[in-house]
Amino acid sequence: MKRLILASVVAAVGLSACSSQRSKPAIDTPFESRFSTKVLNNDAKLFTYSMEMFKPTRRITSREEYMRYRPSTESVEALLDQKVTNILNFNRYCREGFTELDRLVLSDYAMVRGECNEAATEEDRKRFPNIKKARR
């Protein structure tokens, strides 16, 4: 199931990258994104979407080069909003919208936590099972 979600994220990211048109310059830095879900016992549906920019493979030697590499927080935030909308539309996790619970946007990392406006159904519980992480 986790692979299906990861494949869904990759597909949504790929499709949205092809169809997006922004007035600001596009972020050309590759990033890794993660989408996780949790359905609570009271039928609340939570999610977290995060994206982290990859660091350059070579050393940055000047301030100008650093500023050219580093995307603005505004462009990261716009990309984050677009990606959250795309993944939620693609997997139909929050069919009636969501309430944002938390947001963090930096130039190299961004994250949104939210709660869906609708309660979880039995189908939601089957499609988005809670996966327990192993403790180390």
TrEMBL record:
PROSITE patterns given in the database record: PROKAR_LIPOPROTEIN
Source organism (scientific name): Paraferrimonas sedimenticola
Protein origin, superkingdom: Bacteria
Protein's name according to its UniProt entry: Lipoprotein
